[in-house]
Structure formats: C-alpha cells, structure tokens
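[recover] target loaded
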C-alpha cells in the first residue's frame, strides 16, 4: 500500500514495496486516477523524482515518489 500527502506544488507518495508490477500499477493509478480525481495535473517542466533511503538493505524500508503538480 501507499500513503500520499500533498503540499504546495508537489504530491508525495510513500511506498513500502519495490515490486516492479506494483510500482507500475501505482504510477498508473496516480497519473490516470488520483491526480484527475483531485483536480490536479502533473507538471511537465519539472521531473518526477524517486527518493530512496541510504540503506536499502534493511527489510521494510519506505521510499517516495514525488510528483510536481499544478
């Protein structure tokens, strides 16, 4: 599962899974379901970033997808 928060100019989605199929599904849901239903658009002039912890060897680490919005 994921948790999201939105602040001015950015939506942050925190995930605990790195499974490729799951991550692809989450990106699809964010871009085609969540953003439109929230009345938001992804900015195309600023890249989406992924933020990982320094120690990814620990079990159960969380990471973030940060999407610039307008």
């Amino acid at each position: 599962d994921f948790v999201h928060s939105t602040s001015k100019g950015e939506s942050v989605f925190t995930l605990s899974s790195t499974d490729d199929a799951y991550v692809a599904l989450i990106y699809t849901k964010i871009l085609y379901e969540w953003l439109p239903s929230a009345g938001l658009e992804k900015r195309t002039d600023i890249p989406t970033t992924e933020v990982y912890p320094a120690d990814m060897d620990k079990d159960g680490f969380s990471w973030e997808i940060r999407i610039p919005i307008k």
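[recover] notes: Residues 20-37 form the longest helix (18 residues).
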